[in-house]
Amino acid sequence: MxxxxxxxxxxxxxxxxxxxxxxxxxLAKDLGEILGYAEQLKEVDVSNVLEMTHSVDLKNxxxxxxxxxxxxxxxxxxxxxxxxEKNYLKVxxxx
Amino acid sequence: MTIKALHEALKNKKVSAREVxxxxxxxxxxxxxxxxxxxxxxxxxALKQAKEIDERIASGETPGELWGVPLAIKDNILIRGKIAxxxxxxxxxxxxxxxxxxxxxxxxxxAIFLGRTNMDEFAMGSSxxxxxxxxxxxxxxxxxxxxxxxxxxxxxxxxxxxxxxLGSDTGGSxxxxxxxxxxxxxxxxxxxxxxxxxIAMASSLDQIxxxxxxxxxxxxxxxxxxxxxxxxxxxxxxRNSKLEIKKIGIPxxxxxxxxxxxxxxxxxxxxxxxxxxxxxxxxxxxxxxxREISLPHTKYALACYYVIMPAEVSSNMARYDxxxxxxxxxxxxxxxxxxKSRGSGIGLEVRRRILLGTYVLSAxxxxxxxARAQKVRCLIAEEFKSAFEEVDVILAPTAPTxxxxxxxxxxxxxxxxxxDIYTIPANLAGVPALTLPSGAQLVAPHFEExxxxxxxxxxxxx
Lengths: 95, 462
What we know:
The complex is a heterodimer of chains A (95) and B (462). With 95 residues, chain A is mostly helical. Chain A has a domain at 5-42: Glu-tRNAGln amidotransferase C subunit, N-terminal domain (Histone, subunit A). Chain A has helices spanning 5-15, 21-38, 74-80; strands at residues 84-85, 88-89. In chain A, strand 1 (84-85) and strand 2 form a beta hairpin. With 462 residues, chain B is of the alpha/beta class. Chain B has a domain at 3-225: Alpha-Beta Complex (Amidase signature (AS) enzymes). Chain B has helices spanning 3-11, 17-35, 43-58, 101-108, 151-158, 175-181, 215-225, 271-284, 301-316, 334-345, 348-360, 367-390, 413-417, 424-429, 449-461, and strands spanning 38-41, 70-74, 112-117, 164-169, 184-187, 207-212, 247-251, 289-293, 393-397, 433-435, 440-443. The longest helix of chain B has 24 residues, at 367-390. Chain B starts with a helix and ends with a helix. The mean pLDDT of chain B is 95. Classes of the chains: A mainly alpha (95), B alpha/beta (462). Chains A and B meet through helix 1, helix 2 and helix 3 of A and helix 9, helix 10, helix 11, helix 12 and helix 13 of B. Chain A: This is Aspartyl/glutamyl-tRNA(Asn/Gln) amidotransferase subunit C.
């Protein structure tokens, strides 16, 4: 199963990742092989089977709506920010 | 020295925590250059923690079971104030702003952290060759891989560079390296251990678990880290189960010629591993009834995993964009900044899985791949359930082959993936599994880790 180059380019855009030229070539081959392997799933009769959502039975529970300590490490988060100018956190303009 | 032995020695004042930590730090200095097990060693913190432990013992306190135990922590588990890079460049400068639930528990229990260990980037790989910081070598044979993705943690324990360690397991990442390095590794039941503070890979499959020298040590560590945590809504308290083990099941598909491991072109089960398992079966038969069982759908487990896992990966990895933390690569506009930061900061295997996940979740492909895989996953889980109506514990191999050579499989992703063929089913079904140093793997029903320890100890001591 092969994946077209245009499709790979579209996926790269969707996933917001870059690949080098050689990497892209190999990628088409690797993805094709992996998806080809996944084709086996088509052999399985899954009529009347539900999609699994959790491997362990869980029930939804709610905790009491009580006030408690929030983030105390806001400065850590600001410190982790890659780009800063004076007292501002810097990002590219969106518009 | 085991956790159990250290505890006795501390209690009887035969040894100090400081002496023990220093002996490990010396071993790390001697070996880490060659093996590349630790990405960072917390020498000063470890010595300081050891001093505190010694002072508390000197003041008359009775030491707890984990006091002074020098541990290695996988680099995807957060320790407040320390870098947690998941062996990726994009998180190379990321300092954890809080403790993972397991780390908080271990700190309170008096354990000491020696350092953070190497791994496949974001836990994606089976050999620790996918680390952005170079491969880890197998301490038992340096030309071979230690397995992965928790290769650093397993190698640390096997090489005497830590008394025990924490790893994480999404498709075999604790058990396969444990088998490759000849140590004990446990993947707990999904939900038995909180994932709060674990850098997520595939959230419906990830579990943190111990790597140790003995089954008893793994049990001690597991008991220290398990339990419900409000910060992980999928975590659960272990229900008390009856400990009655009579029958051990052997899945015939795992061993037959052309069976699971040969399915889809993988290596068939190595004769030496087959022999080891045969010997264990013989030993077990002295105490338990051995019964052949059938798990016909497990041959689809790997295909199922390689749809579900990348789907979850692609969504979990979206947060690494170089905007709020991590490394940012500047470009003309926002979209290009994302692409460049992720392109240069994230390694090839991780990007490959992001793309694969994006593909299987795309409109038009979702039903054919993701929905179908989740249905097959349901069948695999059901199969385990019915098997456990017949037997109490299942015995299987962990990996189809002994450790392979560094570089041997790195250019062929599918071949690399096939080395996890025996470990993936437990993640898909959420059941606990224990790997022994011999490479044997025991699987039990949800929340019945106790059975694994019991049978594991029987195999260990006879």
